[in-house]
Amino acid sequence: QVWPSSLPSSCVCLRTNIVTGAAGAASLLSLPTWGGALAGDILAIFTMWTWPRITGSFVSSLHPVKVMTMAMLVYLLEVFFCAWCTAYKFVPGGIYARERSDILLGIIMLFIVIDLLVDGKKDLGSLFGIKNSQKPLFKQSEKFIKLFLWLFVGIGLLGLGLRYKAYEKKLGHGLPKKEFSALIWPFRFGYDNEGWSNLERSSVLLKQTGVDFITIIESDASKPFIGNNDLTMWLGEELGFYTDFGPSTRDHTWGMMVLSRYPIVHSRHHLLPSPEGEIAPSLSLTVNFTGKLVDFVVAHFGNEEEDLDRKLQAITVSHLLKNSSEHVVFLGYITSAPGSRDYLQLIENGNVKDIDSTDRDRWCSYIMYRGLIRLGYARISHAGLSDSELQMAKFRIPDDANSYVDNDKITIDPSEVPAEVHFSSRFGSYKEGHNYEKKHHFHMSTPKYFKQNN
Q1: Can you give the pLDDT at residue 61?
Q2: Active-site residue identified among 300, 327, 382, 443
Q3: What pLDDT is attached to residue 55?
Q4: Are the CB atoms for 213 and 295 separated by under 8 Å?
Q5: What rounded mean pLDDT belongs to the chain?
Q6: How many CA atoms lie within 13 A of 101 on its CB side?
Q7: Beta-bridge partners for 449
C-alpha cells in the first residue's frame, strides 16, 4: 500500500521509497515514450506519498509564514528556471540553463529528500497528535477515507473511459475522396492577443474551414509557466481528429501538433539542428486518405537572427522532403522570405513546388508540395485570435503519380472551378491587402484557385 499512514516508518522503507522516487525522476527524462510515461507514474505516486509528510512538517514549523514565503520564492525561481530551459536565447544567462531541466528536477528532488530525511516522521497521525486511546477510531476513519478515495479514483477512470469512447466515435468519419485540404497556423499556445484562452473560438474557426489536415505551430502549453494544458488532446477530441502531439515537452521546443481527419499511419519526430538558437521541432508522417497515402513534413525553423541554424535546418528538412514518397505536402514556419537561401534549399533540393510562387508578400508560413494537383490557396486573417494568419491549400491526388498534369493557371473567380473546390464562404470573398477587421476574412489577394491553362 502506498497511502501515507500505512507505509512503513523504518529507515529501510523510507530509503527504499526515496530511491524509487529518485529513479522515477531520472527515468522520466531519460527513457523513451512508454518507459518515460511509466517513470512519470512512479514519480507521481512518490509525490503523493511525500505530500502528507511535507505538509506535516510545514504545519508544525515554528514560523509557518516564513516557511510559506520561502516556499513561494523557491517555486517562482523554479518556474523561471523552467522557462529559461526553453527560452534561453532571449533571457540573461540563458546559455547556462539551455535544456537543463534535469538540473531543475534534481534540485526539486534534493529538497524533497532532505525534508524527508530530516523531518519526515511528521505524518498526518503525528500532526493531529493522535493518542493511543484514539488510534482505533483513527484507523477506522482511515479506512473510510481510503474507501472514498478509491471510489473517487474509480469514478475518474470510468469518466475517462466514457470520454475516450465518445472520442472514438468521432474518429474515422472522413468520406472517401481524392481531394483534401491542409492548413498551417502559428497558434501561440492557445491564448489570443489579449491574453485570454482561445481554445473554444479556435475549434469553431477550424471547423468552419472544413480542413482535413492541420499543423499548429507553438502548441506546447504543457509547461508550468504556460498553463499545464494539453491543447492537442483537447482540440483532437473537440474536432474528432486523429492527433500527434509532436516532440515532447522534455525536448525543450515550443511545440508542434498535427490534427488529421484521416488516420495517421505512422509518424516520426525530429529535432532539427540548432547549435545557436532555440530547439526547432519537425514531424514527418503519412496519412491514409481512404486508400491513398500522402506524406506530410511539418517544421518550425529557428529565429531569423540565427543564420547558421536556419541553414542547417533547411538542409535537414530538404532531405526529409526528398526521401518522402511521391505524394508529399510541406507545411512550415521558415522565418525567411520567398526566394531566400532557405526557401530555395527546400524547393530545389527537397524537390517540391510552392503552392503559389507569385505570392511574394509572405513571411514564416509556407505550403509546398510534390506529386499532387493544386486546386486552391487561401490566407485567412487571425482577427486577434492569434498574432498570425491561417494559410490553407487544397489538393487532388492524381490517379497515376507518373502521368498527370498540374494546374498551372491562377484565377480569382470561383465560378471557373467546380463548387467542391471552393473555400468556405463564411470568410467572405477575394480581398486584396491585409484584413484589419476583428473578424476572420480572406485577405492578401486570396483565395486563389488553380486550373488547366487551356
Answers
A1: 78
A2: 300
A3: 79
A4: no
A5: 89
A6: 20
A7: 376, 411
Q: Which uninterrupted H or E stretch holds 411? A: strand 409-411
All residues at 6 or more sequence positions from 208 whose CB lies less than 8 Å from its CB, including other chains: 424, 426, 427, 440
Say how far apart CA 193 and CA 129 lie, in whole Å.
52
Radius of gyration of the chain (CA): 27
What per-residue confidence (pLDDT) applies to 3?
Answer: 47
Q: What is the DSSP letter of 260?
A: E
- Catalytic, 300? Answer yes
Please report the beta strands in 301-402, taking only residues with DSSP state E, as ranges in sequence order. Answer: 328-333, 353-354, 365-370, 373-380, 390-396
What are the C-alpha distances in Å from 389 to residues 76, 239, 378, 419, 423?
Answer: 34, 20, 10, 25, 16
DSSP code per residue over 143-202: HHHHHHHHHHHHHHHHHHHHHHHHHHHHTT-PPP-SEEEEEEEE-GGGB-TTS-B-HHHH
3-class SS of residue 236: helix
The type of residue at 69 is T
pLDDT at res. 235: 96
CA 176 centroid distance within chain: 28
What's the CA dihedral at 315, 320, 321, 323 to 10 degrees?
120
* 325 touches 357 (CB < 8 A): no
Provide CB contacts within 8 A for 60, sequence distance 6+. Answer: 122, 127
| Residues of the chain below pLDDT 70 | 1-10, 119-140, 173-174
Q: Residues 365, 342: contact at Cβ < 8 Å?
A: no
35: part of which helix (H) or strand (E)? helix 33-59
